[in-house]
Hints:
disordered N terminus, 10-stranded mixed sheet
Amino acid sequence: MIRSLFYSVGLGCVAAAGMLAPLPATAAQDTSWPTKPVTFIVPFPPGGSVDPLARLVGARLNTALGQQFIVDNRPGGSGSIGAAAAAKASPDGYTFLFVFDTHAVNPTLIPKLPFETTKDLVPVMLVGTAPMAIVTHPSKPYKSFGDMIKAAKAKPDTLTYGSIGSGSLGHLTMKLLEQAGGFGAVHVPYKGGGPMIVDATGGHIETGIASVSVLASHVKGGKLRAVAVTGDKRSHALPDVPALAEQGFPGFSALAWWGIFGTAGTPKPILDKFHAELVKVFNLADVRRQLADTLGMDLVVSSPEALQKFLLAEIARWGKVVRDHNIRAD
């Protein structure tokens, strides 16, 4: 599915006749964007994976466009507080929102969001995706995900797994796997990846699940053992770790993702120019390498329309899991 989202950008030429017609004042203003600093709202604390992505993009656009791109961290509510701020911002092209996969879960997980996810924000780009990794402490006996399933079936309600919070993609993915594999496990929610990693590397929980961007360095450093990744293929960040599709779950895929949105009503010429500049940034070899190495990201660089289609599918998929299992936010 992800492959269908890849977007090839073509720069069209303006017809000569169109060049002769004077541009309306609003259009002229739009094409001169940006004429002042632009704010990137990141609805999470500094660190993590969304914050460095926004800072990397901001630094490159600062150089390319000659304006400041300021990262404004507004954490809380699984990303919903910052998203609400972006949804209510002036639609003038000077506020954009960088999101993580929780953006598609929140409409179902959090009752009465103060904005409409699919109406108050406009899609700009699906930047990339990455699988999650399922890990355990090296002292634990699990060498594969199958070993975890056997242990969970042998002693029900004893296998614990940590995630970055109730309703996180890791939590919901494990619910799907429990249902498909016919086993049960005990969820231990944490307030983010940091605390979960502390307990996982200390051997205080049996297993943990989070994006490879959070876990890969600890696996490579020998502090954790990865038994599976949740994509339909292996991750370039952990090439020796088999996908769940290789371990009895054919076709299974659950991906973390990063996207960029604007405030609804932002003039299309601004959105088009911003998108075109983003494409240039993500086509830079060193940027692609950095995102692959630090976040384990598979770049997508989609069209706005592809992001909207992807978002609607993710909302439908994970919303069903939230409802079926009566999951509530922390």
